[in-house]
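Structure (tokenized):
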């Protein structure tokens, strides 16, 4: 049986990821879901579910399953997706040399993401940026699907 996933679910996970969140694809259902670091840590131990709030118990059960089976595939995380490089590549894609250089200067040093965001709004190119970033994330999602032999569907 070929695995399947809705590409929008993968894209949403890539866009919403944080350093403390982990997204997994469940092979049996084709669903993508999130588990926080502390829930994964709890799943590594023999968790007493009564010690956790009701809303967290299902994720901890899933964490135990993730650790003890091969029914899950981790989606790319912050360490595998280099948002800075995507931002830098966007800067290099700008044809206007003066604007390109200003954007490249803005992303050097501390506060690079904030400075970049300020500049794209200042020059009214935020739509161009979000389209570019969206396409890069889509490329990453498709590559992940292909590497894991998962068929994807687009809506």
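Design, position by position:
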């Amino acid at each position: 049986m070929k695995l399947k996933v809705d590409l929008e679910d993968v894209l949403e996970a890539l866009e919403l990821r944080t350093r403390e969140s982990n997204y997994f694809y469940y092979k049996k259902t084709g669903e993508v879901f999130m588990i926080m670091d502390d829930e994964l840590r709890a799943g590594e131990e023999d968790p007493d579910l009564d010690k956790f709030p009701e809303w967290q118990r299902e994720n901890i059960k899933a964490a135990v399953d993730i650790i003890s089976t091969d029914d899950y595939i981790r989606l790319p995380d912050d360490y595998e997706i280099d948002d800075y490089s995507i931002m830098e590549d966007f800067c290099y894609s700008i044809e206007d040399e003066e604007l390109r250089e200003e954007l490249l200067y803005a992303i050097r040093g501390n506060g690079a993401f904030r400075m970049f965001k300020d500049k794209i709004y200042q020059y009214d190119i935020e739509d161009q940026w979000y389209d570019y970033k969206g396409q890069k994330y889509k490329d990453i999602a498709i590559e992940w699907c292909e590497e894991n032999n998962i068929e994807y569907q687009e809506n």
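Reviewer-requested clarification: The longest strand covers residues 21-26. Residues 50 and 76 are 32 Å apart (CA to CA).
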